[in-house]
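Protocol step 4 of 6: structure prediction from sequence.
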Amino acid sequence: MLKNSRTRSAAVINIIFILLAAIGVLIRIWTILPSPPIDNFDQTHRVLLDEPTVYPWARNHIRPLDVIPDPSKETSIFWHIPKSGGTAVKTLYECLGTTLANQVGVDPKFNHQDKNEVIAFNPWPGISRASYVNVDTSNKPGLNRARKMGLVPSGLVDLIITSEVSHAAENLFDESHKGHVLALFRHPVDRLVSKFFYLREATWEPQYRPQWKNINILEFGKNKNRENNYVVKKLAGLGVNDTATEEDLRIAMRTIKMRFVVGLLDEMGESIRRFNVVMGIDETDKENRECIDHLLHDSIGAKNYNSNARLHKVEPGSTVWNAFARRNELDIKLYLFIVDVFGQQKEIIDSYESSIH
């Protein structure tokens, strides 16, 4: 028995010596391996740290979605994407009695366009509850003037309506005055089809195109439509003749998910509810409820949308659909992503509602 015990002890000791020897060999091998260049490591590390998660204008000036809105102290932007319900949204917030910034405030007939300080006024007293400020946020020169006048710090405006979302956020807001962005999205192909049928009839629009009456939708999609990836380009601050990239798309996705309260034209009722939560609109108020119901059911915009959606429907996968889709692949990918984000944001907006009220 004693002999067997000594034999086992000797075996254990031999195993320990073998393990120690192996560790020593590994240590010697490790010490002679070349170390990675410090410069390359630092450069890689900096790239990882500097990789943009959202566009700088959004990161620096727009509140993230995990911050509960304070409507009494904050200003919001509504990004007006053409043929995506923006005019209906503007009309709604006029009816709701909010103070808006758009081109209405510098209409010469109201005689406030040359004043150098921000004022709010009712353009249609006795007819509408709407108020406007005397700036034009529909274009970059107007936004630059609004910045110099101190539009957002003035605290006079509730909602800034603009198609220049990146320029507005970059120039009107700052670290001390951050805001929220609301946006209503529509499928890019549906939006462009709507644009074609609208602008060939809309004599009141500066972009009126009577010559489009002489072509069909397929010819327009193949040969006349010059618009491509409009939404991705706007978020990236690119011009109409610039080319958007997959990287622009990825940053656009992150920016929208982390900084935008998104709505869908196909989900107008729920989209408006979410916007109203951020804006602090009381939907139980009788006048407010009438404004909302009118927008969703009785307004000219609602009737036109429902009628035109059926009349000018283009089937996915058709020749016409593909003619538009080929030039707008990034916008289509972004829209499908936004549809998912819309579903995910319901819980976030509901949490705002319970916290604000």
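Step 5 (inspection) to follow. Residues 49-98+158-356 form a domain with the Rossmann fold fold (CATH 3.40.50).
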